[in-house]
Amino acid sequence: MRAKITYFVLAAVLVVYFVLVGSRGVLLIEQGTAVTVTFGVAVLILPLIGVWFLWHTTQFARKAGLLARELEAEGGLPVDELRRTPGGRIDRDSADEVFAKRRAETEQSPTDWRTWFRLAVAYHDARDTPRARKAMQRAIALHDGKPVRA
CATH top-level class for 92-144? Predict the structure, then answer.
């Protein structure tokens, strides 16, 4: 729950920032000179890119949450079997062991979104965020019945 609150607060701050930057872009365009209009258009592009990125990130998080709830209802969420350091961090060797198990499960059932979801969690636990995101994207695509590249 804390992560959701943090996400929404940061998203709201970004939206305010986008509005402020966009208003500056409009003010530059209203000046009417070639230089200010060019800068104004360039400044307006930044919030558009930011809104696009925020939208896609929010959709990704929402869909991953839906998959987590569905998997939880089925009783298929991965069990936390990771060893931790005295400071509470995940032990790297433990994360690697669980990852190997999750990868083997995914190789046995490459079209099951559930195995890809669990693999994404294992990637995340192993601190490999880019691969965790790709695995979760694949889980979402498989769940939604969208075509997935091999």
Answer: mainly alpha
